[in-house]
């Protein structure tokens, strides 16, 4: 850590600390060295606290916490790569050393539905919606058109066919209908059935004649 870049606050007339004093302030000399896991921003202090009186508990804990924070920050600034960009200054943390326990149990594997089990046995793959969309690209018009229906790609391709195979059976049926229509005498058209004939009933009058 570059101690010369640390801004000095307070009265300028006070003597500045030397590099050794700053190093001792940031890395205090402890009987048991600190254990640092920079990946988790974790610093463990195994040094026991001395016997404390009620009046000295708070100052002692604050001093120990300050030493731990200073040591952790100094370790990060010296060992982690620093990146400066438009957003600011950032540190890249290393891979954590400790494997922290899970808060919740590992989720169980979701059971497959009957359809999913059947599709897996038969090798059926699920298609996404965009793989079978309603719109397709038309190379002729160079535009997206409907796959089916009025104005769709199938209808356009049919309209652009300049050679169409003739259905012989359909053509013979049309010719037979035209010839039958020509053989009919003029004025003879389909007669409209009466009400009784439409209902399938034939009534008799009183004199015995059919009505």
From TrEMBL:
Q: Which domain of life is it from?
A: Eukaryota
Which InterPro entries has this protein been placed in? Ribosom_reg
Q: Entry's Pfam families?
A: RRS1
Q: Which UniProt keywords apply?
A: Nucleus, Ribosome biogenesis
A single GO cellular-component term from the record reads: nucleus
Q: Show the ranges annotated as biased composition (Basic and acidic residues).
A: 169-182
Question: Is Nucleus a UniProt keyword of this protein?
Answer: yes
Annotated stretches, region: Disordered = 1-22, 169-211
Report the locations given in the UniProt record.
Nucleus
Q: What is its main location?
A: nucleus
In its UniProt record, which GO terms are filed under biological process?
ribosome biogenesis
Q: Where is the composition biased (Polar residues)?
A: 1-11
Q: Could you tell me what this protein does?
A: Involved in ribosomal large subunit assembly.
Regarding protein family, the annotation reads: Belongs to the RRS1 family.
Q: What is this protein called?
A: Ribosome biogenesis regulatory protein
